Amino acid sequence: MSDIQLLAFGFNHTTAPVEVREKLYVSEEEIPSFLQELKDTCIRELVFLYTCNRMEVYICADDREKAMESLYRVFCNRFKIRPEYLSNYTYTLEDKEVFRHLFLVASGLDSMVIGEPQILGQVKDAYRIATTFNCTGFYLDKIFHKTFNVAKRIRTETKIGYNPVSISSMAVELSKKIFGDLKRKKILVIGAGEMCEIALRHFQKEGIADISVTNRTFANAKRLAEEIIGTPYPFEDIPLLLTEVDMVLSSTGASRPIIDKPLITTVMKKRKNKPLFLIDIAVPRDIEPDVNNIENVYLYDIDDLKDLSQKHLSDRMKEAEKAKKIIEEEVEKLSRAINQVDVAPLISHIVEKFEATRENELKKYIVKLKNVDDDTLKTIDILTRGIVNKLIHPYIAMIKENGNPAVLETMKKIFRFGEDDEEKLDNRKQGE
Amino acid sequence: MDTRILLGAFIVYSLSTFFYLLNLTSERKNSYGRIAHFLLLSAFIIHIMSVVARYFIAGYTPITNSHEALSFFSLCIAGFFLYVKKIYKVEILGAVILPVVLVILIFATAMPSDIRPLPPVLNSYWLPIHTIFSFIGNAIFLVSFFISITYLIVEKGLKEKRFSFSIMRFPSLEVLDSINYRCMSYGFIFLTIGIITGSIWASNAWGAYWSWDPKETWSLITWIIYAVLIHNRMAIGWRGRKTAYMMILGFFSMLVMFFGVNFLLGGLHSYM
Predict the structure, then answer these.
(1) Would the CB atoms of B172 and A178 count as touching at under 8 Å?
(2) Domain check: are A178 and A149 in the same one?
(3) What DSSP character marks residue B121?
(4) Do A366 and A282 share a structural domain?
(5) Does the interface ipTM go beyond 0.95?
């Protein structure tokens, strides 16, 4: 692998604070031009991964120093920053570390929320864009395809993404456990804050179409209702709405509970005990906690959801250990595969070189030997072949067993691998 | 002949149960469920064949002694579960229902299975009609008993905010409750028909529609429990946990009617 340098360069949420990540911003439209810019002559292959928590460039280059130089140049020019600033917040990885890191990233182990699934899609997109601009080749193709396999293997063999951890996706998951299919369900939103909106988007993804919005200030309810395609209702309608909906998401700034136990008790009678799922993400709470004691009512407040999230995160941490073992396994496999591909030409070069020398010498001396029969010739041939094979063996074994680039480099120098082909041709002609 | 086929069915049921349990514990969704489903379907068909074979060998509907009754009962449970699965796609519940089928079959095979001449009082076309309706009704109530237990476990988890394994894998409360509702209505219909056909047969055979024999009494108690439950669900919305508790109560009453009377209380119905 020594004539090819694998590099990963970039920053993530742990190395660069949000102010820095904001500064080093690339819009989606700019990515193609950025790719072109990066694809300097000394960079053979290139994938550019950019999410809100990381920016990473995966590179396969001929020369490490030159590649880094051009990377720094492009980054500093584009973002108008000094090289020292860039080196403060970035990391550079080489060889094996490159794909180990990529495996970790793609399987969500390097994410802010460990095990989150979106990152795999983002890695796939990054790779797809790179291929459309012809930026990838043998090495990165191999590495990225392997990465997708590894990420899939981790998803199926560990429980890394089993339980949800974000407040919104947990609310969705819980309502699925209560109602099953959410398509025909109705949800009421009390309050018009940002949290409501985020959670509603999650519910909409599950197919909920019937959304009612209410707020103390009707105008705000109307604004949110328009944004997410729902129906606004005046605040006084809450008791009536409660008899009709299946779920309530509450997040107001009220200082005292707006839904109490007597209200829900009467509501449940009118509903003929149809289950009601209440999600209270407001602080202070909007719904009295003892509402949960009413039959067929399920109340989850922000602390309940946070506790669950914490529990699920620690589950994920445990699963991450399993995932890391899988990654180590796969890193070894891939590194062997890449090295083997690389040493095959070197091995055949060495074998050819020895064989050429043997043939050369043999021919010289056979002319001198007169009156030898075919049997003797054959014996001589077998003998020389045996000697040569014995002599080559330690070199070949060393190349096969040892992936160390320094060893390979030495071997290449000894056997003049990669030097111009004319020399080889010359040698053969001399031999003939 | 028929007992050998039954043994074959038993083996395939066991395999199916194994895969259903694997399906419950595995992280891959329904990868083993499909195998389990296929095995269950095969076992069910083999089981039907064994009942049919016995019908032809014995010359009467083979629901006349404990061996035959338990075998036919487990067949009804398997059949009803296949029906529930088709409607609700609840493969995961196989891990709950199939072990029950298996245990009942073990008891069936443990009972003496030799074919004896039919007691004259049973020699009637009412035998298949009355027994088949009653058995299907009972099988439905048994399934609903286990569905109710599952419901209570999931419900408790959700109420107490423990997002545990059982909650993740089992169907939603709404699906479980809806299966229970179906069980309640169908089971009630079959039980009612069973009682009516039984009393017509009784008037033919014993000369009276109703003679307060222990089995008749307990079937009436069971019938009343389910009738109250259905009424309350429709009228005042008894659903969820209340339904589950009532279904469990009804099930125990049914157990007394089904097994207790034959083995403990005696009376006109004790043929087994």
Answers:
(1) yes
(2) no
(3) G
(4) no
(5) no
